[in-house]
Amino acid sequence: MPAPPHLTHVALHVRDVAATADFYQRYVGLHIVHDRTDAGVRVVWLGEEETDPAFVIVAIGGGMGGYLPPLANHLGYDVPSRDAVDEIAARGRAEGILVEGPVYAGPIVGYFCMLRDPDGNVVEFSHGQPIRPADIR
């Protein structure tokens, strides 16, 4: 039996990344472990461990007046291979719950697919998506 998926992140689309990061730093004791801007959108990863997090909250900026892009908020799971992503995507497609992928989106996002759970929540399954700052190329 292949290794089960491992929860690595929860992504939240937020109105103000700095305010969100400040809140989680002051009230929860999280650390900013990654901070970047992609196409004008600030993305901050917050983790309990400063240098080697096993799990992060991903704060994605640009609240867009209350509108949330379809994939903005999601649970992210790591799987052991691209083949595992392909297999999950094929099962999701057969059940009519595949939202996106599989697709390779570069060295930070990796190879992933997205499914909808029974309540409409988006769940990402990825391979090659590092969450430890030292692993980001």
Task: Provide key terms for this protein.
137 residues, alpha+beta, 2,3-Dihydroxybiphenyl 1,2-Dioxygenase, domain 1, eight-stranded mixed β-sheet, globular
At the fourth CATH level, what is the homologous superfamily?
2,3-Dihydroxybiphenyl 1,2-Dioxygenase, domain 1
Helix content: 10-25%
Mean pLDDT: 85
Strand content: 35-45%
Structural class assignment: alpha+beta
Total discrete domains: 1
Unreliable sequence segments: none
**Major β-sheet annotation:** 8 strands, mixed
Order of helices and strands: EHEEEEHEEE
H/I helix tally: 2
Q: List how many beta strands DSSP finds.
A: 8
CATH architecture type: Roll
Question: What does this entry look like structurally?
Answer:
The chain is α+β, with helices and mostly antiparallel strands and 137 residues long. It has one domain: 2,3-Dihydroxybiphenyl 1,2-Dioxygenase, domain 1. It is built from two helices and eight strands. The chain has helices at residues 17-28, 82-95, and strands at 6-13, 31-38, 41-47, 56-60, 74-78, 98-104, 111-116, 122-127. Strands 2-3-4-1-5-8-7-6 form an eight-stranded mixed sheet, covered by helices on one side. The radius of gyration is 15 Å and the shape is globular. The N and C termini lie far apart (31 Å). The mean pLDDT is 85.
